[in-house]
Amino acid sequence: MDNNKSNLTNDSIPSPASLPPNYIYLQFNDKTSKYNDDYYCDVVAFEMNETEVKIHIIMKSNNTLGQIQDPKSSKLLVESGRLNFKNAEFTKADPNSGYEGYLSYHYNPKLVGNYFFTFGQFGYSTVTLYNSTPVF
């Protein structure tokens, strides 16, 4: 396997070797914000620098309960507060079947502690993404 390439298939996720040295970059295969077995959001990567935090997601649905909640209303919390949403970019954006891409939040150095992500407005489980406070 080429160590300079991500083993993930989503083109919106950069390879770790392509990131600047001041980035924190983590890949996941076990972080899911879940509503039920048919509506779930896999968090595939977490990226952070001095100005922003990006959450790379693959959201899937079979549309049995209707359209997917707006990804832009997802929450990124830190133990001491909530990060403000910045923007989103998707390579796939279908409210009936899923989204692939990232959600970006403004980094706030005053907020410290563990990072938690919850997809959508309500009903999805919360996952822990990062277990310490970076020092930039």
Ordered list of secondary-structure elements with their pairings:
Layout: E1 24-27, E2 32-36, E3 39-48, E4 52-61, E5 75-78, E6 81-82, E7 85-94, E8 98-106, E9 115-118, E10 126-130
Antiparallel strand pairs: 1-3, 2-3, 3-4, 4-8, 5-6, 5-9, 7-8, 9-10
Quick summary:
Strand 3 (39-48) and strand 4 (52-61) form a beta hairpin. Helices cover 0% and strands 46% of the residues. It has strands at 24-27, 32-36, 39-48, 52-61, 75-78, 81-82, 85-94, 98-106, 115-118, 126-130.
The structural domain count equals 1
What is the helix/strand order? EEEEEEEEEE
- Helix percent band: under 10%
Number of helical segments with 4 or more residues:
0
Distance between the termini: 31 Å
Strand percentage, roughly?
A: over 45%
The strand count comes to 10
